[in-house]
Amino acid sequence: MLYSIIQIVAFQALFLLVYDLFLRKETFFNINRAYLLVTSLLSLVLPFVQLPELQKVTTKDVIIQLPEVFIGQQNPTDYEVFVAEKVGIILEQPSMPIWQIILLLGIAVATLIFIVKLLKINKLKSNNPKRWSGEILIVNLLRSNKAFSFFNTIFLGEDIPELEKRTIYNHELVHVKEKHSLDLLFFELLRILFWFNPLVYIYQYRVKELHEFIADAKAVKQNGKAEYYQSLLHQIFDTNTLSFTNTFFKKSLIKQRITMLQKSKSNRKNLLKYMLLFPLVFAMLVYTSTEVKAQEKEVVEAKINQELTDEELIEIYYNDILKMREEGAKYFEISNYAGFGQNHSESYIKSREDYLKTSAFMRFMAYMMKETKSKNDELTNVNQTLYKKMTELPHKNYKGYLEWKKTDEAKERWMSNARDNSLRLVVDDMADKTKEEQQRFDGLMKQLETDSYYKKLIITDGRSTLVVDSPLLTEENEIAEVPFNVIDESPTIKSCQDLATNDERKQCFSEYINKHVYQHFNKDLEQTLGYGRKRIFTRFIINSEGKVTDIQARAPSEILEEEAKRVIALLPQFIPGRHNGEEVDVPFSLPIIFQVAKNDIMQLKKRYKKLIAERDRILKHSSEKNPVVINLNEQIEGLKKKIDKAKNSKKD
What we know:
Elements: H1 2-23, H2 29-45, E1 64-65, E2 69-72, H3 79-87, H4 98-127, E3 130-133, E4 136-141, E5 147-150, E6 153-157, H5 162-177, H6 180-193, H7 198-223, H8 225-234, E7 246-247, H9 251-262, H10 277-290, H11 292-305, H12 310-326, H13 331-340, H14 352-374, H15 381-390, H16 398-404, H17 408-416, E8 422-426, H18 435-450, E9 456-460, E10 465-469, H19 475-480, H20 494-497, H21 502-520, E11 532-542, E12 548-554, H22 558-569, E13 577-579, E14 582-584, E15 586-596, H23 601-619, H24 627-651
Parallel strand pairs: 1-15, 2-15, 4-6, 8-9
Antiparallel strand pairs: 3-4, 5-6, 5-7, 9-10, 11-12, 11-15, 13-14
Helix pairs in contact: 1-2, 1-7, 2-7, 3-15, 4-6, 5-7, 6-7, 7-8, 7-9, 12-13, 12-14, 13-14, 23-24
């Protein structure tokens, strides 16, 4: 909101600058009036206009990481920690920022002043004699020499000489017929909303100036210049000060009005000056469409330097996320904004900005959970438990987060949660490693030099970060593969091929891969594995013929590696991706999380009952064909087998 206000003020400044430099001295009064009205409206609208055609920016991703596949029992033991590592924490709801409170108070005061002005006009009508002349109400102001108009009412002071009243009446009649009061009332409303913005006052003054020029130009035709000049010069003493009335005797305008009356009409060639509006508006559209995010970041960073509170910044980031959602942004786009994308994977300690964005994201997740719950949709008990767990994390603010990052627990978690085919190492001091740290570093370097799966080694001490690329990477390999995010037509399957946009086809493709892995992965392997989460990193290429090739996998055990390769190899032949009119190879990275639960009958039964209750709740508002219901049925059947197997093993 604050950034939009800044844009509005900036656009008004540019429009007024063009007016004062090129248009103000021209005698095209009605066109100038239209310019001021139109540009004042444009300045309010343009900050919220973003043309999709100008938003497209080519990405330079080398490989796309598909959404993680989670296989296994999703109970609130380790699953919550798994999600916590991805999304961070949630802070308390922020209070209203101080600037918003001041803004609202100012609007309230400006509204009160406006009401007082209206009451003053009404009082003048009530306390003075009046008469109708056709559709015009003429109010005779007692003991006054003021003259002004408001809508269809003309106020004339009784002390004005009778010879000049006719001239003044004709002048004010032009204001009434041209509906100048509507212009001034519009700017009066802008003064209420933007009471702090001096440009609105300048806009209103420029319009009032034009109103007088227009009225003078028409009235002088009926009275003659000599008589009209005399009326202007004789009455430079008492004035009316209401900002939304058209006043005949305005000292500051008398000289300009006389100058304009004497001025020759502008050459029609000068109308070309108004063409300046088109490139100016186009430039503003380009700015709002392509640079808005960068500018918002600069504004936020400026605010950080001004020591805005965490709550104020979270409010800004939260509104950004809501705006992204309203504009149809995908989940991965929102999560990338919040600091979970590939560009953020090398950072051990998040910046304050990224940390607060994470907090705003968690607030958004809480809102989504609440919204889903209100619709009786697919909110699970696991999500509710997860949300509760998030609010109980040890680091409730950025200061606490920095302290926690110094602990061994935080270091081990970051090193074990590697992404993007990378190895990680946290040391106390990059320039002075301990003997143990040096040994771990040497071991990881050897692994990087001999294992083609890993692409880089990230070493950090929290203050500086070093990224070592694998020497096994070749320029040829990098050029041969076309990134998923920049490809003209992504690899897909027949059921996804007819979707309208490439983004929709990509999303459909990702969901297909996720479902395939979940359905075909051998879940009975948990009987041979230790308790906990097993992270598997897979990489494969869909080549120019649509075939899955170059399948690689890394996992804590060889069994899981082979199983992951087997499942990926079962993928069918795809419709290949195309780029620049040619079929190309497209690389993919797919993380798989295999959850191995404790083989405890009581725990299995408890989970079994929860899944049945969750399935039955969803079935009240859905059908058996709901993918969530199908997934729950598969988990229920798998748990039943485990319970029976556990019972048999105890009997033996």
